[in-house]
Design goal:
The structure holds 2 protein chains of 2 kinds. Chain A is of the alpha+beta class. Chain A has 2 domains: 161 residues, Beta-Lactamase (2-Layer Sandwich), CATH 3.30.450.20; 49 residues. Chain A has 6 helices and 5 strands. Chain A is rod-shaped. Chain B is mostly helical. Chain B folds into 4 domains: 132 residues, PAS domain (Beta-Lactamase, 2-Layer Sandwich), CATH 3.30.450; 65 residues; 188 residues, Growth Hormone, Chain: A, CATH 1.20.1250; 200 residues, MFS general substrate transporter like domains (Growth Hormone, Chain: A, Up-down Bundle). Chain B is built from 22 helices and 5 strands. A 5-stranded antiparallel β-sheet of chain B has the order 2-1-5-4-3. In chain B, strand 4 and strand 5 form a beta hairpin. In chain B, helix 16 packs parallel to helix 21. The longest helix of chain B has 54 residues. Classes of the chains: A alpha+beta, B mainly alpha.
């Protein structure tokens, strides 16, 4: 019985352990990606904050947001960091007023940006992850304390994706070896534990078959069987044997009465 | 059990090794990024200083307010340690927050070479990662700006990842152990438990139970031998009885016939055989896996649901943005609340398994609809269907546990329920958040729908053929007439122990919703903790419950003292909340952490015994009230705590500080506990006087 109870049960542990290790690996990678992304966001929050401060200084001087001359500054910031894809300034209707990419001026920003900006008006910044780019935004306030727009910086996710890919490759290689070792250890340990249990089941079956066919068995043999550590089984067999014996005695007693040997 | 422990231990060990390796790799990859911000800040500040000096014509050493400027820069960027401007001839011109040993080192190395304009150079100085940026005025280098990042800060950032990894291990372990537990229970623990019970009955002389099992392995063969032995024994007994009757009937002598008759009646009493084979009943813990899968599916959207709602809010919302976000969540709760009320009757008519499946249908349609939702109104509709499913399933589970728990292991049965909830709470948000990021938030609802289907399938396989409680009970108690309308409410609320239980339950729920779900995120956010840190601190509560509940429930079943356990639990929880008042001495974050741990420990002691007590009351009133109706009344009242919690917390923080609000909730918990004790003692007095009266 090679593919017996112990083998099958131990085999089931393999996919369960693989699931566990896979979840750990995927979640670890996800956490790495989150932390990496947070670090990048923190850097670009500073950059957008600097741009916003410059804009608010000009607003304090009485200039209007749409009339500011900041395109060159936006372009300089973009050139200074090759991760930055674009920097845009939009108003409260979502219209792009200034951009490091002049072709996007007067376009409407995605609705999600506006929602995110409105919702986070009280916080220092807001972030968003798009398919190919990360977005960091800060709110612009005029000197009356009103939110009149936002500075938004889009950065490439290439660095992040590349780092995650590298880490994923490293983790896959290491975890494959770790998984193999884990599976082997778990499988053979489970086989060891279960084979003892199976031996116990086999011995129990044998004893019960003997009791069934012979209806007799030395009670000491039953108690001394070291394979079986379940004490209640011994009690069960003892009770079965004594029940058989009692039935034998009772029937003998009834027969004696019938034959008139006993009064 | 040893196999389960072995699986858990090997899993934990492998997780630690894998995570250790991952952590080491991540440290190497993240360290350069930590310095990038210092570079961004240095570049911006050096160009601003150069601008001030060059464009305004002020020599760099005569600039005014630079230290204040540095101070505000460091305050807005707390991950930076210091800022200094060093001139080759004069030394340090301006600085903020630079430690003495850094100043000494900078003074010792004044003649550092200037790099080209816009360049920077990073090195470690006195344990700090120092980046220096040349400041050029009219193309002449005049000074260096030094930006310092503490290595401690780098380590702190990496330490955060250690916590992240620990939470990952916890999630992974919970999922693995739940699957392993299901497999072991279904294939090893339950069958061997049943065999054990057959042996136990046999050892007492009862040979009637049989095991219906077909398996071609060692265990199946042993079970066949057992069944054959029992069958042979049964046959032997029948032959034995037949022979005795034959002997008696063949007698002419009435004396002998009478003697044999007495032997027949004696043997019938002595041997435990009967004409009917007894069946082995279902276990309360069978519901754990389907319930865990359902909670898992529901909790998947927990971490991003408010953000998901934002996408549906129209440009010109009818209510404020915050209210528009909270409305689907509130209406979900209302739908759950109403479904709980209706579920009592439905459970009675349909049975737990069918009600569970009905709940799954509602949940599945809700998730599927949420995936396709095109407007805010549609989103609300689908979430309300989810809420109905949630309410029905909770009621089905509680009724199942009440029906299939035995007097000897009520807390153990309840721990399956509590454990499944908190295991779902731990795993769902983590995996859901990750899936939402990679597959999209809407797709996660589709996965939830799939999980709900699997949960329904598991319920169908594990719980099927359970007859409705109404039918099951009516077989046994056809003579009793059950109360309807408001009568069950009246009966339960005149039962002092039920009232006492309600006090504890409402206080527990209020603590959960007011303290953990409402005040903790706000307070920790005010203390400057990130959402990840807040999530980890909150996860600690769930972790304590999941790890502690099985042990506590086993202990409760052994000592059979449910009420004292809830008393101790409430005491720990209440004092833990009052502990927040020591935040001035031990630090605010530390005090919050201790309060969370105390509440976790307290609830760990309360939850299982509380459900066990509820089941006792349900059992005591089964003659007058349907079990499902009693449970739905309890659940209805219990949910009031969830609803009043946030309102109470909001009112408190309007009037007082966060620590005082938390402490007030602690005081409420302790007062509720005193009320509970009063009612519990009233019940005891009533029983004592009833016993006295009956003895007279």
């Amino acid at each position: 019985m090679f593919f017996g109870f112990a083998f099958r049960t131990s085999l089931v542990m393999v996919p369960i352990l693989v699931i566990g290790i896979t979840i750990t690996s995927v979640l670890s990678l996800h956490k790495f990606s989150q932390t990496f992304s947070n670090l990048i966001n923190s850097r670009f929050e500073f950059v957008t904050g600097e741009i916003r401060n410059g804009i608010q200084t000009q607003l304090d001087l009485g200039l209007f947001l749409e009339n500011l001359e900041i395109t060159q500054i936006l372009e300089e910031y973009q050139i200074s960091d090759d991760q930055i894809l674009s920097i845009e300034v939009f108003d409260n209707r979502g219209v792009v007023l200034h951009s490091s990419d002049s072709s996007s001026v007067s376009d409407l920003v995605p609705e999600e940006w506006i929602n995110r900006w409105r919702l986070n008006s009280t916080s220092s910044s807001w972030t968003l992850q798009e398919r190919n780019a990360g977005v960091v935004g800060v709110s612009i306030r005029n000197n009356l304390g009103q939110d009149i727009g936002s500075v938004v910086l889009r950065y490439s996710r290439n660095l992040l994706d590349q780092n995650v890919k590298n880490e994923a490759q490293n983790l896959i290689a290491f975890n494959a070896i770790a998984t193999l070792i884990t599976i082997l250890v778990a499988f053979f340990s489970a086989m060891f534990i279960l084979s003892r249990l199976c031996n116990e089941f086999r011995s129990m079956g044998k004893i019960m078959d003997i009791v069934r066919t012979n209806k007799k068995m030395d009670n000491e043999d039953n108690q001394q069987n070291t394979d079986i550590r379940t004490s209640v089984f011994h009690e069960f067999i003892s009770k079965t044997l004594s029940t058989n014996k009692e039935m034998d005695l009772t029937i003998m007693q009834a027969r004696s009465l019938d034959e008139g040997k006993e009064n | 059990m040893r196999l389960l422990l072995l699986g858990g231990a090997i899993m934990l060990l492998s997780q630690i090794v894998i995570s250790w390796f991952a952590l080491d790799r991540f440290e190497q990859a993240l360290s350069p990024q930590l310095n990038q911000k210092a570079v961004a800040v240095g570049t911006a500040l050096s160009s601003q200083i150069a601008y001030a000096s060059q464009e305004l014509g002020i020599p760099i050493n005569e600039l005014v307010g630079v230290n204040d400027f540095f101070q505000s820069a460091i305050e807005t960027n707390p991950d930076l340690q210091y800022l200094t401007i060093v001139n080759h001839d004069v030394g340090i011109l301006f600085q903020h927050n630079a430690p003495e040993d850094v100043i000494q080192s900078l003074m010792g190395e004044l003649k550092q070479p200037f790099g080209s304009k816009g360049s920077h150079f990073t090195e470690e100085i006195a344990g700090y990662l120092d980046s220096r940026f040349p400041i050029y005025v009219e193309d002449n280098p005049v000074a260096h700006l030094h930006v310092g990042v503490s290595s401690e800060n780098v380590r702190r950032q990496l330490f955060t990842i250690v916590f992240e990894i620990i939470s990952v291990i916890l999630v992974s372990m919970v999922v693995t152990i739940e699957i392993l537990n299901l497999y072991m229970s279904r294939n090893i623990l339950v069958p061997t438990g049943l065999v054990h019970r057959v042996f136990e009955s046999g050892a007492k002389g009862q040979f009637t139970p049989r095991l219906a099992m077909r398996a071609r392995n060692e265990f199946g063969i042993m079970v066949s031998s057992l069944n054959r032995l029992l069958y042979e024994l049964e046959q032997r007994y029948q032959d034995f009885q037949f022979e005795l009757r034959e002997l008696r009937d063949a007698q002419i002598d009435p004396r002998v016939s009478k003697k044999i008759s007495s032997i027949i009646s004696m043997t019938s009493k002595r041997f435990g055989f009967s004409d009917q084979f007894s069946t082995l009943e279902k276990s309360a813990t069978q519901i754990r896996m389907p319930f865990f899968l359902f909670i898992f599916s529901e909790e998947m959207s927990r971490s991003f649901f408010p953000l998901f709602v934002i996408g549906f809010i129209p440009i010109e919302p009818a209510l404020s943005y915050e209210l528009m976000i909270s409305l689907p969540i509130t209406l979900f709760m209302v739908a759950t609340f109403l479904a709980t009320l209706a579920a009592g009757k439905w459970t009675y008519r349909m049975g737990c398994s069918r009600l569970f499946l009905l709940g799954i249908v509602f949940a599945f349609v809700g998730y599927f609809g949420t995936f396709f939702a095109g407007s805010y109104a549609e989103l609300i509709l689908w979430r309300c269907l989810n809420g109905i499913g949630y309410g029905l399933i909770f009621n089905a589970c509680e009724t199942w546990i009440a029906l299939y728990s035995k007097e000897s292991n009520r807390a153990h049965g309840a721990s399956a329920y509590v454990g499944a909830i908190f295991a779902g709470y731990i795993c769902g948000p983590s995996l859901g958040g990750m899936l939402a990021e990679y597959l999209g938030q809407d797709t996660t609802f589709l996965i939830s729908a799939g999980l709900a289907m699997i949960s329904g399938y598991a319920a169908y396989r594990l719980l099927a053929s359970s007859s409705p409680p109404g039918k099951a009970e009516s077989k046994q108690e056809s003579s009793s007439i059950k109360q309807t309308g408001f009568q069950p409410w009246k009966t339960l609320f005149t039962h002092p122990r039920f009232v006492g239980l309600v006090f504890t339950a409402v206080a527990t729920r209020t603590t959960l919703s007011a303290f953990l779900f409402f005040l903790i995120p706000l307070y920790l956010n005010e203390l400057g903790h990130s959402t990840t840190e807040i999530g980890q601190m909150m996860m600690l509560y769930g972790g304590i419950i999941v790890i502690g509940t099985p042990g506590i429930s086993g202990f409760c079943d052994r000592i059979k003292r449910y009420f004292p356990m809830t008393f101790v639990g409430a005491l720990i929880s209440g004092i833990g909340l009052l502990f927040i008042l020591t935040s001035g001495m031990i630090g605010e974050s530390r005090a919050v952490l201790i309060s969370i741990i105390a509440v976790g420990l307290g609830h760990c002691l309360i939850l299982s015994p509380q459900y066990a007590m509820m089941q006792q009351i349900v059992y005591e009133h089964r003659e007058q009230i349907e079990s499902s109706v009693s449970i739905s009344i309890y659940r209805f009242v219990d949910r009031i705590g969830l609803i009043i919690g946030p309102v109470l917390a909001a009112l408190l923080i309007q009037r007082t500080s966060y620590p005082n609000s938390i402490a007030t909730i602690g005081a409420i918990v302790l007062i509720s506990m005193l009320c509970s004790v009063t009612f519990y003692n009233k019940q005891r007095d009533r029983i004592k006087s009833a016993l006295k009266a009956s003895s007279l």
